[in-house]
């Protein structure tokens, strides 16, 4: 068995950045992504969203390409939300991804955990929020 420590901060948006992640689905969406990630032997260290995008800190084993993980999570979670909300739900093409060192984990987890406060107080990290993906 290989030993690995790989941490990725991944951000992706709803189609056309529409506010599709509402309060009624947010918690279920997060739980779905965490559980689906476990099926792929991935570990979610942090997850949170705003109405038009989601942040995820995840460890993906080296035998799975990051692009494959993102494709599978985006596709299956879109289907999941469409079924529970009875509305069309789509993610925008693409995503932003940043590698994180082990020492940086607490800061990134805190940033993700406090998404709503960062947006409210305008203390967002522009590189993580304003990129076009």
TrEMBL record:
It comes from the Bacteria. Residues 3-115 form the Transposase IS200-like domain. InterPro entries: Transposase_17, Transposase_17_sf. Pfam families: Y1_Tnp (PF01797). This is IS200/IS605 family transposase. The gene is tnpA.
